[in-house]
Specification:
Elements lengths: L12 E5 L5 H11 L6 H9 L3 E8 L4 E11 L2 E9 L8 H15 L4 E7 L3 H9 L3 E11 L5 E10 L1
Parallel strand pairs: 4-5
Antiparallel strand pairs: 1-2, 2-3, 3-4, 5-7, 6-7
Helix pairs in contact: 1-2
Bound molecules: coenzyme A.
């Protein structure tokens, strides 16, 4: 772990294909960031799906999981199903690097558009996607059911590749 104001050294971060043997770790981070969270078997199912394009961001020294991105490619479209960065690694470019990694994989697969849904009030995620050039492609009212609270609206964002 390093203090939140320490700049991230790119040499200390690897973007790796997500593999099922990291599902427990990914699920633990997912549970820190989302409610309701995905359990390890849902994560395994997602990353073992034939259309999966999922990565982890791994800090080399000391070895730890900084983030994950779970995506899927189907024909000429791709979707980000979930993305998260460990709180101590947020705001240091990890989320951006993971989306850019998925974009590279999608381009190689001749994908034309990358989609995602994000809660309208998730300012950090909306800012990340907007900074990468995603544009609003629609809305879904009441899309997210949050634990113990009301439904939240989602915006659909798309990036032309
Ligand atoms: C959204 C999330 C993945 C962003 O990851 P991150 O590694 O912190 O983001 P980055 O450091 O790559 O940020 C890239 C850009 O996004 C924007 N951004 C990211 N976090 C932000 C925040 N908290 N407030 C405002 N802008 C933010 C900025 O433009 C930032 O560029 P800058 O730091 O040069 O200004 C992370 O906050 C997270 O895991 N949140 C909880 C889970 C979640 O909401 N996932 C998204 C579901 S769709």
């Amino acid at each position: 772990m390093c203090p939140a104001d320490t700049p991230l050294n790119p040499k200390n971060l690897s973007l790796l294909w997500a593999s099922p043997d990291r599902a427990e770790e990914i699920a633990a981070l997912h549970a820190q960031l989302f409610d309701p969270a995905w359990d390890a078997s849902s994560i395994t199912e997602s990353i073992e799906h034939p259309a999966s394009a999922s990565f982890i961001a791994q800090v080399r020294d000391p070895r730890s999981l900084a983030g994950f991105i779970i995506g899927r490619i189907a024909a000429d479209e791709a979707e980000i199903l979930s993305i998260g960065v460990a709180p101590e690694w947020q705001r240091r470019g990890v989320g951006r690097q993971m989306v850019e990694g998925l974009v590279r994989a999608a381009r190689r697969a001749e994908v034309k558009r990358l989609f995602l849904e994000v809660a309208t009030d998730n300012t950090a995620a909306v800012a990340l996607y907007k900074s990468l050039g995603f544009k609003k492609a629609g809305t879904r009212n009441g899309y997210y059911q949050r634990a113990g609270s009301e439904k939240a609206d989602a915006v659909i964002l798309a990036l032309g590749l």
